[in-house]
Specification:
Length: 186
């Protein structure tokens, strides 16, 4: 029986290959860093409170959450490597690009909620990590919209994990400084 750390490392190896060459938006840092941060948030959150969560599922979905949206990996391949449950959760975390852009977030959140607590935890961790300094070229408007989206995520997925939600709420407040910075700079 693989331990959670073995499971985590296997997913990270797969993600490293799938996302090879990709950089974080507006940065020279590898995309894998985003996934490592999401993994860390999930790990520390579960250390705080793991009751009711399948730890291996959280870690795998957390590390693999962008492979369907941002790489050439197909659902069949993901399911073959990590099982149907992981694949189904990652699909909920992937936007349906056939929908109008304005509906994609709400649609994904509905599917995440219907899927599992684990998928909800990953989405909270993902947005928490994304409440870092935005790409320098983002306008104040875009930053405000991103902060609003984060508030919606927190509201829709609230009741999943108190510790992670408190961290996200704090990061959302802190994000105002990046908006003011941009407003002041114009
Ligand atoms: Mn992400």
């Amino acid at each position: 029986m693989p331990t959670p750390v073995d499971v985590y490392r296997r997913a990270l190896d797969f993600a490293a290959r799938a996302h090879a060459g990709q950089k974080m938006s507006g940065s020279e840092l590898p995309y894998l860093l985003h996934l490592a941060h999401v993994g860390a948030e999930i790990n520390f959150a579960l250390e705080n409170e793991a009751e009711g969560f399948d730890e291996n599922l959280c870690l795998q979905v957390g590390i693999l959450h962008d492979v369907l949206e941002d790489t050439d990996i197909l659902p069949e391949e993901l399911a073959r490597e990590f099982g149907e449950e992981v694949c189904a959760a990652v699909q909920t975390l992937s936007k349906n690009k056939k929908l109008p852009k304005a509906q994609q977030m709400a649609d994904s959140l509905n599917r995440i909620k219907a899927n599992s607590k684990e998928a909800c935890l990953v989405k909270l961790a993902d947005r928490l990590v994304n409440m870092s300094p935005p790409p320098h070229y983002w306008s104040a408007e875009r930053r405000k919209a991103y902060q609003e989206d984060a508030r919606m995520i927190l509201e829709v997925l609230g009741g999943t994990h108190a510790y992670l939600e408190a961290r996200l709420a704090q990061k959302i407040e802190d994000y105002s400084s990046y908006i003011e910075e941009e407003d002041g700079g114009q």
